[in-house]
Q: What sequence folds into this?
């Protein structure tokens, strides 16, 4: 009983700190350890992606932008701002039906892919800004765009250390796009939903042992104990097999190492994008030696997959609460009996 009470108190403490952090000090709105912004009478100062921007308020809010990464699309769809996107890269990896409608209508233009962006087309679109993850090999592309008067905003949400920090990027996008109030409401709703789900999951005493990811070649990239996946499993009241690791990323381990750690695993999550257990087994016959493969439950993130696109990597980047809700439904199905998984799908 005491452990349960302390866990509930801890959840509300985290949420309270989260609110305080977002409000920030000295006028800063703090999104994460590396992202914050502050506005004075005529300048919006934004620190993000290793860069500091002093953006004149006369040029804000942005009306037309180009997105160079599919993961950023989720913020615009969550805010209902698809029509403010002038161009997008790699549209085959975009899940949003509204985005594809606009692409088909010529309202959004294809500006290439992460192998080669069409710089001439981006410049011709005359966007107010380009939003992108910072990728070192495209530094020359960024500099060329800036020489042509286009502001390049780096938003590296994929580097964040917890799921709600990714959700908080709604605040940055909302501020830049003139939807600050809407973004704040959306984020508060996600944060509060997440906190309520953590409390719900804490009521269960049984914590199933959980394995994550799969083999790639000769290595199993097992998420570290301080990774986003580990945090989600913990918040869903699962017992992650690598929780003791201090790594924030993934650890490259051999099959034998993972096999030894996962002997008691009952659930296997994020097992690629396979269509069946046999399909998974064909990628590595050693899986048949694992108890979790033969008698446990296995889940992929393919519930909302369409051809090359997957909404888990789009809206799932923003909706931390729905990802957590999936995990709780998987680990403790009795807690959410009427809930159908949003992003995950059980392998049969």
A:
């Amino acid at each position: 009983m005491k452990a349960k009470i302390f866990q509930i108190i801890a959840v509300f403490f985290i949420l309270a700190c989260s609110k305080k952090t977002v409000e920030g000090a000295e006028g800063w709105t703090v999104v994460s350890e590396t992202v914050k912004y502050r506005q004075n009478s005529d300048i919006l100062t934004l620190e993000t992606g290793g860069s500091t921007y002093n953006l004149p308020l006369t040029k804000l809010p942005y009306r037309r932008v180009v997105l160079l990464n599919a993961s950023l699309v989720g913020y615009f769809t969550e805010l209902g701002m698809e029509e403010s996107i002038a161009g997008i890269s790699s549209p085959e990896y975009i899940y949003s039906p509204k985005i594809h409608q606009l692409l088909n209508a010529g309202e959004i233009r294809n500006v290439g892919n992460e192998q080669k962006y069409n710089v001439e087309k981006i410049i011709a679109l005359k966007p107010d800004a380009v939003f992108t993850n910072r990728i070192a090999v495209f530094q020359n592309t960024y500099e060329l765009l800036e020489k042509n008067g286009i502001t390049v905003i780096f938003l590296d949400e994929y580097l964040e250390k917890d799921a709600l920090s990714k959700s908080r990027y709604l605040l940055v996008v909302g501020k830049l796009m003139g939807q600050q109030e809407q973004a704040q409401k959306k984020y508060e709703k996600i944060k509060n939903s997440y906190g309520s789900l953590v409390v719900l999951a804490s009521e269960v005493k049984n914590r199933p042992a959980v394995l994550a990811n799969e083999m790639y070649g000769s290595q199993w990239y097992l998420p570290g104990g301080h990774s986003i996946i580990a945090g989600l499993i913990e918040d869903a009241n699962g017992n992650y097999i690598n929780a003791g690791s201090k790594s924030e990323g993934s650890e490259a381990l051999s099959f034998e190492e993972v096999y030894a750690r996962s002997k008691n695993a009952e659930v296997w999550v994020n097992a690629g994008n396979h269509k069946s257990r046999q399909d998974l087994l064909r990628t590595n016959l050693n899986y048949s030696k694992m108890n979790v493969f033969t008698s446990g439950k296995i889940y992929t993130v393919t519930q909302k997959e369409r051809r090359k696109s997957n909404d888990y990597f789009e809206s799932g980047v923003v909706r931390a609460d729905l990802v957590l809700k999936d995990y709780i439904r998987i680990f403790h199905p009795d807690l959410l009996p009427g809930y159908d998984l949003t992003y995950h799908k059980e392998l049969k």
